[in-house]
Design brief:
It is built from ten helices and 14 strands. By secondary structure, it is of the alpha/beta class. The protein is elongated, with a radius of gyration of 25 Å.
Length: 296
């Protein structure tokens, strides 16, 4: 019995919690999958799984072996991918997921440039602001702004740092006044980004000293362009990446405030499954983004 196939069957049983579901994913019979796992256990001389009528769970030894199996299977897939793409022109579909505002404001034109450079690569681009797991949701890579995930199954490739600014419309500031220090924000309407882990608590630093303030406001949204437009309409103060508010700052629709304070910087990263590390299409696109946004 093929050892790699048995290892793959074992990982599928662990991930799906049952032999039946693993068999369905592998398009095999339940008994075939069961035999492959038993073959592994007999070969290793250890019990890898606890089996009950309701569920299947890995033993402590099984958990450790599962992690090693993933590493081995990923390495094999990566090697096969590298060999198959090494001597061919990059082509095929590249499935990308990116944040809505970044995709619309910045990435769209760059995608067109990339495709003109590599005419045989087809792009499928999806824009949304929630975090997307490329493995479970079928993307070759995702682009994210913020703290990258901590996962042994994902490669995180930082591209550049994106600064943020605090700003508001002149009309709002004329009515409510211009805040001079961070604690002044308590008396203002602040527009909050919905997916920030800090919630309604803003963190800023002044002369290397970090300060925090609980803010309140009338609007919370997970899209930066919506918050920018609300700020332009005079609904409150907003803290957003430069690329979202740059044009509004230039034309005077928004005005920077508290410029002596610094907001935590955001990292623009490309994230992809570890077994896709040697994919030519992914490497080309990552290098392209580094060329484009290294000086963002």
């Amino acid at each position: 019995m093929d050892k790699l196939e048995s290892m793959y069957a074992f990982t599928q049983v662990v991930e799906n919690g049952s032999f039946a579901e693993a068999a369905r994913k592998m398009n095999l019979s339940r008994s075939s999958v069961n035999k492959m796992v038993i073959h592994l256990e007999n070969h290793l001389g250890v019990q890898l799984l606890y089996r009950t009528t309701r569920q299947v769970t890995p033993t402590d030894t099984g958990k450790a072996f599962y992690k090693r199996c993933l590493e081995i299977l990923n390495s094999v897939e990566e090697a096969e991918l590298a060999v198959s793409e090494q001597h061919s022109e990059p082509k095929g579909i590249l499935r990308i997921n990116a944040p809505m505002s970044f995709g619309m404001s910045v990435l769209g034109s760059k995608i067109a440039e990339f495709m003109s450079r590599y005419e045989k690569i087809n792009i499928q681009l999806t824009l949304e602001d929630r975090f997307v797991d490329p493995i479970s949701e079928g993307y070759d890579l995702v682009i994210r702004i913020g703290s990258p995930p901590d996962s042994s199954s994902l490669v995180v490739n930082p591209i550049t740092i994106i600064p943020r600014v605090i700003c508001a419309s002149p009309s709002y500031l004329n009515i409510r006044g211009i805040p001079k220090k961070i604690q002044d924000l308590k008396d203002h309407s602040c527009l909050n980004y919905g997916y920030l882990t800090s919630g309604c608590q803003w963190e800023l630093s002044y002369q290397e000293k970090e300060e925090k303030v609980l803010v309140k406001g009338v609007l919370c949204c997970n899209n930066g362009e919506v918050l920018r437009d609300a700020a332009i309409k005079g609904l409150g103060i907003v803290a957003l990446p430069n690329f979202i508010v740059e044009e509004a700052l230039k034309n005077g629709a928004l005005q920077t405030i508290l410029s002596n304070y610094k907001l935590p910087e955001l990292t623009l990263s490309v994230i992809y499954p570890i077994n896709r590390h040697l994919s030519t299409k992914i490497q080309l696109f990552t290098q392209f983004l580094q060329e484009c946004f290294g000086e963002l």
